[in-house]
């Protein structure tokens, strides 16, 4: 299960201007997320965006892949480091806790923007289909993956996950309470439905190029690593409750286990 690792936030000031600035920051970060995730859908699907994963002037394959690996590494390091509880404890010594998640979201959106901007296409085709029905079906599967991502985020707490709830409560001068461990919807089928949605979205394509394959493999490896880190944090936070959940529900494959919750 994806969880929000943020401690309870005390109300520290009733200054209306500071609270309004906090909300404005949260809205800005959320807008950055919305723009970046919307562009990502078009980027990976080669749909309606000025620059996609397979468009642009293609250079030599190996240098292009090395540059793309560096771009993806920026995103991986940002996500991995900033998501860890130890970093959050250190970071919130310098910034208000109410904007910690929004800052994470803003940094992630900037890292994605860098990928979209500097991505080097490797459009050599590995596999493709010209059958219209199959192309439509594969695009539909990819879109369904993105739908799973959004559905999973709302099943946990979409606005908490992307920092807006924290800044809204701060604007209302109310203390923050974590969402906590909840077992709802898709989380009864797999522990990480949001990550499963990403995997479906990035692999389902009617035309697989070298660049797209490289992106899909690298992101899938990162998801595997990220799930390992997150599971460790969730066990530390929720203890036996999460261990029982892990024994009963698979991480990414929606097949039943022998034991029940």
Q: In brief, what are we looking at here?
A:
With 261 residues, this protein is mainly α. It contains 10 helices and 2 strands; from the N terminus they run H-H-H-H-E-H-H-H-H-E-H-H.
Would you mind describing this structure in some detail?
This protein has one domain. The longest helix is centred in the first third of the chain and has 30 residues, at 16-45. Helix 1 (16-45) packs parallel to helix 4, helix 5 packs antiparallel against helix 8 (193-203) and helix 8 runs antiparallel to helix 9 (210-238). It has helices at 16-45, 61-82, 85-91, 100-118, 132-156, 158-161, 164-171, 193-203, 210-238, 240-248; strands at residues 125-128, 207-209. A two-stranded antiparallel sheet has the order 1-2. By secondary structure, it is an all-alpha fold.
Taken in chain order, the helices and strands follow as HHHHEHHHHEHH
Query: How many separate domains?
Result: 1
Distance between the termini: 14 Å
Whole-angstrom Rg: 20 Å
Poorly predicted runs are 1-12
Q: What's the helix count?
A: 10
- Sequence of strands across the biggest β-sheet: 1-2
**Mean pLDDT over the residues:** 91
Gross morphology is globular
By secondary-structure content and strand pairing, the structural class works out as mainly alpha
Largest sheet: 2 strands, antiparallel
How big a fraction of the residues is strand? under 5%
Helical proportion, percent range: 55-70%
Q: Could you tell me the number of beta strands?
A: 2
């Amino acid at each position: 299960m994806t969880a929000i690792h943020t401690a309870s936030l005390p109300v520290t000031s009733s200054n209306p201007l500071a609270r309004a600035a906090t909300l404005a920051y949260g809205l800005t970060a959320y807008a950055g997320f919305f723009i970046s995730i919307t562009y990502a859908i078009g980027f990976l699907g080669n749909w309606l965006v000025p620059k996609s994963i397979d468009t642009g002037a293609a250079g030599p394959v190996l240098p292009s892949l090395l540059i793309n690996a560096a771009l993806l590494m920026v995103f991986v390091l940002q996500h991995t480091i900033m998501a860890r509880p130890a970093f959050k404890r250190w970071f919130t010594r310098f910034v208000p806790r109410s904007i910690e998640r929004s800052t994470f979201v803003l940094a992630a959106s900037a890292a994605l923007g860098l990928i979209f901007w500097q991505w080097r296409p490797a459009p050599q085709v590995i596999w493709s289909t010209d059958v219209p029905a199959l192309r439509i079906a594969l695009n539909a599967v990819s879109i369904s993956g993105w739908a799973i991502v959004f559905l999973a985020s709302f099943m946990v707490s979409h606005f908490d996950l992307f920092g807006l709830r924290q800044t809204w409560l701060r604007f209302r001068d109310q203390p923050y309470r974590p969402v906590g461990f909840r077992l709802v919807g898709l989380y009864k089928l797999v522990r990480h439905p949001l990550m499963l949605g990403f995997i479906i979205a990035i692999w389902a394509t009617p035309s697989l190029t070298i660049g797209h394959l490289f992106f899909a493999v690298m992101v899938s490896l990162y998801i595997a690593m990220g799930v390992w880190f997150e599971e460790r944090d969730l066990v530390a936070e929720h203890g036996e409750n999460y261990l029982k959940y892990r024994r009963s529900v698979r991480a990414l494959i929606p097949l039943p286990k022998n034991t029940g919750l």
